[in-house]
Design goal:
- With 577 residues, this protein is an alpha/beta fold.
- The chain has four domains: 109 residues, Phosphohistidine domain (Glucose Oxidase, domain 1), CATH 3.50.30; 105 residues, Enzyme I, Chain A, domain 2 (Orthogonal Bundle), CATH 1.10.274.10; 161 residues, TIM Barrel (Alpha-Beta Barrel), CATH 3.20.20.60; 151 residues, Phosphoenolpyruvate-binding domains (TIM Barrel), CATH 3.20.20.60.
- It is 50% helix and 13% strand.
- The protein contains 23 helices and 16 strands.
- The strands form two sheets. The chain has an eight-stranded mixed β-sheet. An eight-stranded parallel barrel has the order 9-10-11-12-13-14-15-16, surrounded by five helices.
- Strand 9, helix 9 and strand 10 form a beta-alpha-beta unit.
- The longest helix is centred in the N-terminal third of the chain and has 24 residues.
- It is globular.
- The two termini are 34 Å apart.
- The structure holds phosphoenolpyruvate and magnesium ion (MG).
- The site of phosphoenolpyruvate (PEP) has 10 residues, from helix 17.
Length: 577
């Protein structure tokens, strides 16, 4: 095994941060269940084995829950719910009693059925849940076989593992592990959420590393970029040591600017809000000092709770109260497209029944969500927004339903009417925005989709990702049209696509006249720092010039030169974004 060569692994940036540490490789847990068939007389003993193991696991999970903040306990509850699920128990007991399966094989089969059901959906969120079921199975076998837990040994270690269970994630954040690198794992996995919540830098999905890293190897983890360097050479190490020190200083500096206004050098005030997908992310939003939630995506809640009205109301209300006095823009379910829902398989889903199209077809689901949003607006800081608008008719129809539900509710209880807004993510909406002005209070530009639909480039397809430029002049021109319409008709215009998390994009948006940005929570302070160093006069010129450039690459080059001059440290951290 070649261990001295510097190796670079690329994966998903799960939790930001830059650390240098020593690898601790956790042996993988992929245990094949014993498939032997038990004779009749051994089956009652095996059943007893299963029940005892399950009870011990449940006791341990209950103990684990005790010292956790409420936002994390629900992940443990997920596992408890599986172990207590009547159907699951029935299946396992049947397999042991009637088919003579070993307990581990029976649990494996029962879980595999549920995993396959989730995997069939093709939805990333369900795929992550399926993986969690798998880790629950591995845990179960470890308990059955009385295996030792994978422990954190030593300090300042970076864990390398195939995957980690929820229980292991919780032990990791309660130890002094410096970072986590996983062979697998998705962005919405509970491990990812827990590590992000506790600010443990993490990179997932780096692929098989078994012949690349050993216990004690020096490693560098860049959670900003999703990169892992194993056995760095002396010059690499030196460069990163300096960067780590620099970032420490910078982090202190960022905390110092938390209470300062987000204002350009020539006095333009900018509102920085945050995007969230899950309620747990609110803690980071508050820590970073964001002035509101500019996009609360509700699809993951839908996957977890369905469209239950009460459940939605409770979650929305809680988030909106926490962010008060700032506002929270709740976006109606943007299902369809890449966020497929069961039963809707289409040949070309991004051009199919997605977002508001689906909501208007399944009106009762839309109405339930509207009622939940209306009731959640206790403090008057809630705004409601519809996704994927293409035509004026969709805006009029959605608004009519929104107002009708508000009227019906106000006959029974006191409500405050939230502002009603639309997302501009389809070129036709930007091009006809003037016609929609009378029906909306605000617009939020979703550049992820606007770029996809303007440049005809699938946002998830890595083979054409070289074409995906949210700062392409064609996209910038559409943004400008919306900003101009907002000025003319007095509706607010914000931007919530990934462009707001990209320094090049931020410069251009400010230059085009945008004053409200909603971005990744962990980048709020960083963005404030950038904005406090630039002048509107300068960025207006840059944006104007960018509108007549040929393509996104050219735009990026020009703006990067400006940032290098004003904030070289920011360019360094993200590389070329
Ligand atoms: C967008 O399209 O830019 C957006 C913010 O929405 P989503 O990424 O959820 O499609
Ligand atoms: Mg979108």
């Amino acid at each position: 095994m070649e261990k001295s060569k510097e190796i670079l692994l690329k994966g998903l940036p799960i939790a930001p941060g830059l650390v240098i540490g020593k690898a601790l490789v956790w042996k993988h847990k992929r245990i094949k269940p014993s498939r032997k068939v038990l004779p009749e007389k051994e089956r009652p003993i095996e059943l007893e084995n299963f029940r005892k193991t399950r009870d011990i696991m449940l006791q341990d999970l209950e103990k684990l829950k005790k010292n956790l903040p409420p936002r994390i306990t629900r992940f443990v509850d997920f596992q408890i719910a599986v172990l207590k699920d009547g159907e699951f128990l029935k299946d396992v007991e049947y397999l042991i009693k009637e088919k003579g399966r070993t307990a581990e094989y029976a649990v494996y089969e029962a879980i595999e059925d549920r995993m396959n059901e989730l995997l069939k959906s093709g939805i990333e969120y369900y795929r992550d849940r399926a993986k969690e079921l798998e880790t629950l199975y591995f845990d179960f076998v470890s308990y059955l076989r009385n295996e030792e837990k994978r422990e954190v040994i030593g300090s300042d270690v970076v864990i390398f593992a195939d995957d980690i269970t929820i229980e292991e994630s919780i032990r990791i954040v309660n130890s002094d592990v410096k970072a986590v690198v996983l062979q697998e794992g998705g962005k919405t996995s509970h491990a990812a959420i827990i590590l992000r919540d506790y600010r443990i830098p993490a990179v997932f999905g780096v692929g098989d590393f078994s012949d690349k890293v050993d216990d004690g190897n020096e490693v560098i983890i860049n959670g900003w970029k999703g990169e892992v360097i194993i056995n760095p050479s002396e010059p690499t190490l030196e460069r990163f040591r300096e960067l780590v020190e620099k970032y420490k200083e910078e982090a202190k500096g960022l905390i110092e600017i938390k209470d300062l206004p987000t204002i350009t050098t020539d006095g333009r005030g900018i509102t920085l809000m945050a995007n969230i997908d899950l309620p747990e992310e609110i803690s980071l939003v508050l820590e970073e000092g964001a002035h509101g939630i500019g996009l609360f995506r509700t699809e993951l809640l839908f996957y977890e709770y369905g469209d239950d009205e009460k459940e939605q109301e409770g979650i929305y209300r809680d988030i909106c109260e926490q962010i008060y006095p700032f506002s929270c823009i709740i976006r109606a379910f943007d299902l369809g497209g890449d966020k497929v829902i069961k039963g809707y398989r289409e040949k070309n889903p991004f051009l199919g029944l997605r977002g508001i199209r689906l909501l208007l077809e399944e009106e009762e689901r839309f109405r339930k969500q509207i009622r939940a949003v209306l009731r959640a607006n206790v403090k008057g800081n809630v705004k409601f927004m519809i996704p994927m608008v293409t035509t004026l008719w969709e805006v009029k129809r959605s608004r009519a339903i929104f107002l009708e539900e508000a009227r019906k509710l106000s006959e029974k209880e006191e409500i405050k009417l939230p502002d009603f807004g639309i997302m501009v993510e389809v070129p036709s909406a930007a091009l006809t925005i003037n016609s929609m002005a009378d029906y909306i209070d605000f617009v939020s530009i979703g550049t992820n989709d606007l770029t996809q639909y303007t440049l005809a480039v699938d946002r998830r397809n890595t083979r054409v990702s070289y074409l995906f430029h949210h700062t392409h002049p064609a996209v910038l021109r559409l943004i400008k049209m919306v900003v101009d319409a907002g000025r003319e008709h007095s509706f607010r215009v914000g931007v919530c696509g990934e462009i707001s998390s990209d320094p090049v994009g931020i410069i251009l948006l400010l230059g085009l006249g945008i004053t409200e940005l909603s971005l990744t929570p962990s980048l709020v302070l960083q963005t404030k720092k950038l904005i406090r160093r630039i002048s509107i006069e300068e960025v207006e010129k840059l944006a104007e010039g960018a509108l007549s450039l040929a393509d996104g690459d050219e735009v990026t080059r020009v703006v990067l030169d400006y940032i290098k001059d004003r904030a070289p440290d920011i360019v360094e951290k993200y590389g070329h974004f």
